[in-house]
Amino acid sequence: MRIVHSETTKARRARTELDGGQLVPPWECPERVDMILAGLRQAGFTEVVAPAEHGLAPVLAVHDAYYVEFLASCWDDWRALGREGEAIAWIWPTRTMPGRRIPRCVDGRLGHYALGADTAICAGTFEAAMASKDVALSALAHVLTDGGPAFGLCRPPGHHAAVDQFGGYCFFNNAAVAAQRALESGLSRVAILDVDFHHGNGTQQIFEARSDVLFVSIHGDPMTCFPYFMGHADEVGEGDGAGYTVNYPLPEGTGAEVWFHVLEAAKARIAEAGCELLIVSLGVDTFEGDPISAFRLAGDDFLEMGRRLAGAGLPTLFLMEGGYAVAEIGTNVANVLTGFEQGS
Ligand code: OKP
Ligand code: ZN
After folding, report:
1. How far is CA 272 from CA 20, 56, 190, 268, 309, in A?
2. Max CA-CA distance within the chain?
3. How far is the CA of 102 from the centre of ligand 2 (A)?
4. To the nearest whole number, what is the mean pLDDT of the chain?
5. Which residue, judged by its Cα, is nearest atom 4 of ligand 1?
6. Which residues lie across from 316 on neighbouring strands?
7. 192 near 281, Cβ under 8 Å?
8. Atom 8, ligand 1: which residue's CA is nearest?
9. Residue of the nearest CA to atom 7 in ligand 1?
10. Closest ligand 1 atom to the C-alpha of 168?
11. Whose CA is closest to 170, among 142, 206, 138, 214?
């Protein structure tokens, strides 16, 4: 298992997240990276390589250029107005407004490009997002050239980031960037299997109308879980992409038995679609101890998850998404990768 990590992924250290009506220290923190590295080391994954720089072209292949420009300039624009706090969206073009123009003022621009108020932009956010997609692309390069599996320790995560929206702690959609690059390298169809507790709305939106990326997600039912407005079972893709989006919303409290049953259905769809590469959006916030999620997988269930993912028999790229039980995040991630090697 090739492990790819960049210290620059820790350049984002936000102070604030709007949670429960209060500004609290963000759940998505740089300590997650250190705990994952420690867990990997303890499990015998001692070789960790740094990514190459891949530039912006692979990002612009899936994201809007004005959106990327906004992310690059937002913090400076915010600071130039003398704001004390971090850049947090607070006004949106909602259902009763046309919202057809992109405002010039950073407050309006934040509302145009943000999908929620949970995610502050701060110094280092853009740099960390750049490093995160570089981690994904270098891990992908290993899988494409070597054939063996890789784990990209992406941070910030990516699966909530849409063509031109950030939120849910995500800025660049690392899995989408990697999938698009894999197609451009000559593959015909790629599967993205999203096992994070939260629905990968961004990944779904980016590939919704396409059949060359199969998006399959197992997640908390959006009737009660973030991101609330996407991820229902009747969202199956549009046009050419009809049948290439598959959503498995599950109730809060779902445990291993049901979860693994659904995983087998997801694997069956991936096999049927004839995918040449499996990208796993690996959130471990399905853990029973996760502070902001509601599934009940135990630590050992992550070993079984890895074994079953190996059973898909495809070249596999793991990309880190969520997981907020910081004390256990390292062992949970290492368990998936260990189980995968056992099952291969
Ligand atoms: C990101 B990923 C807690 C705020 C929730 C949104 C959750 C983002 C999850 N009250 N913020 O999918 O793990
Ligand atoms: Zn999540």
Report:
1. 43, 34, 12, 6, 15
2. 55
3. 29
4. 98
5. 19
6. 278
7. yes
8. 168
9. 168
10. 8
11. 206
Look at strands 22-24 and 17-19 and give their pairing: antiparallel
| Pairwise CA distance, residues 157 & 26, whole Å | 13
140-198 confidence digits (pLDDT tens) = 999 999 999 999 999 999 999 999 999 999 999 999 999 999 999 999 999 999 999 99
Q: Is 26 in the pocket of ligand 1 (CB under 6 A)?
A: no
- H/E run at residue 66: helix 65-80
Q: 231-252 burial, b if ≥16 CB within 10 A, otherwise e?
A: beeebebeeebeebbbbbbbee
Query: For the CA atoms of 336, 172, 52, 48, what is the dihedral angle to 10 degrees?
Result: -20
pLDDT at 220: 99
| Block residue for tokens 């894999």 | 182
User: pTM value?
Assistant: 0.99
CB 16 within 8 A of CB 308: no
- Per-residue pLDDT, 157: 99
Cα distance between residue 245 and residue 235, in whole Å: 7
Cα end-to-end distance, the chain, whole Å:
11
pLDDT on residue 17: 98
According to the model, what pLDDT value does residue 326 have? 98
HSE, side-chain direction, 13 A CA sphere, residue 314 = 25
The answer to whether the CB of 157 is under 6 A from ligand 1 is: yes
Q: Are 277 and 167 in contact (CB under 8 A)?
A: no
What separation in Å is there between the alpha carbon of 169 and the centre of ligand 2? 9
Q: From the CB of residue 156, how many other CB atoms can be counted at a distance below 10 Å? A: 28
Distances (CA, A) of 34 to 108, 155, 304, 321: 35, 11, 24, 15
Structure tokens at 157: 């995560």
Which value, in Å, is the radius of gyration of the alpha carbons in the chain? Answer: 19
ipTM of the complex: 0.98
Answer whether the bond into residue 156 is a cis peptide, omega within 30°.
yes
